Amino acid sequence: MIKRYLMTPGPTPVPEDIMLLMAKPIVHHRTKEFKSVFKDTRELVKSVFQTKNDIAIFASSGTGAMEASVSNVLAENDTALSVAAGKFGERWGQIIRAFGANPVELSYEYGDFAKVEDIQKAIENNPKIKAVFMQASETSTGVFHPIDEIGLMLKEKFPEIVFVVDGITAIGAIDVKTDLWNIDIMITGSQKALMLPPGLSITSVSEKAKNMIAKTKNRYYYFDILKELASDGGSYTPAVTLIYGLNMALKKLLDEGLENVFKRHTLLAEATRAAVSSLGLELLAKKPANSLTAIKTPVDSTKVIEYMKSFGVDVSNGQGSLKGKIVRIAHLGYFDKSDILMAVSTLEMALKSSGVEFNFGAGIKKVMEIFLNEQ
What is the dotted CATH code of the domain comprising 16-256? Predict the structure, then answer.
């Protein structure tokens, strides 16, 4: 028997009390009981998103909300800026093209992060740009983009442009200030820092974005943002069980206190990165996110991951051109110090078994020292 430990950047572990809540008998989605929970959940989302904007919740993966933000904001032949430095950033361009709009693609090498001046220049060179689409943290590389600086630049220089951010591995793990940073549409998914199974995509929508959506002739049916915002319990059949789970998960985060939540994620990320340095390894990300750590491996990372899995520890490989080159260790959501101790120790054993020369035990020693100093 092997006990499994899920340390991938989505899905992530689900707390036991949330799992038990979702195991209760299901209720009908048009009852007053459910509508009350749905309304309360939307308000709780606002607190975690740090926004006053309205909230739309769809029964889909996070990509559903990405598609909704494109199909609702852009009409055929509209122009938008798509910023990519990884597989999920590239998805924006693919979705924009799928709906007949024209992406101006600003691309960076994997591991790099977006630059404010590059985005400003791209818009100046393409005055028809209607919206900017990008990630907060790029899940495939572990990079955090400077969305604060970008959002404030857009507010000052291009106030008519809608700023759309994929915060799927950021919301609930990193201190993202949606309203303060001028983010018109912020997106997340249930299976990341919100500590739920996959199945919900959650979106905040500013007044500017709503006005643009109302004026644009778009192509959609299910992913109708304005219709969803106007509903009191979901436009169609909502994921009832997940909504109840989301309600509890949000309350758990707010009970812990957002400041403490962000401190916890910062500590786990810093300890993981310090362990990587102590082992003589390199991070992929030039500007690392606190939600996951992408580590370059001197041997085939697939073998490292398989060895870790033999101890019950599931981590992620690279995607696309990065497959076999990196290990991605998540620390977002239902994670604490013991999880990092386990991940780093099994990583060291995996590297040792692969014949990598390094100071065996240096990584776990560094993590223990950091955690001891936090007591």
Answer: 3.40.640.10
Beta partners for residue 313, in sequence order: 5
In 61-174, alpha helices (H): 62-73, 87-98, 116-125, 147-157
Query: In CATH, what number does 5-10+257-374 get?
Result: 3.90.1150.10
- C-alpha 223/C-alpha 235 separation (Å) is 10
Query: Would you state the pLDDT for residue 1?
Result: 86
Query: What is the band of 230 on the pLDDT scale with cuts at 50, 70, 90?
Result: very high
Angle ∠(3,8,10) on CA atoms, nearest 5? 120
Report the distance separating Cα 213 and Cα 182, nearest Å.
17
Q: What is the pLDDT of residue 219?
A: 81
The whole-angstrom distance between residue 335's C-alpha and the CA centroid of its chain comes to: 15
DSSP 370: H
Give the mean pLDDT of 237-241.
Answer: 97
Output the CA–CA distances (angstroms, integers) from residue 134 to 91, 180, 203, 259, in the order listed.
10, 17, 14, 25
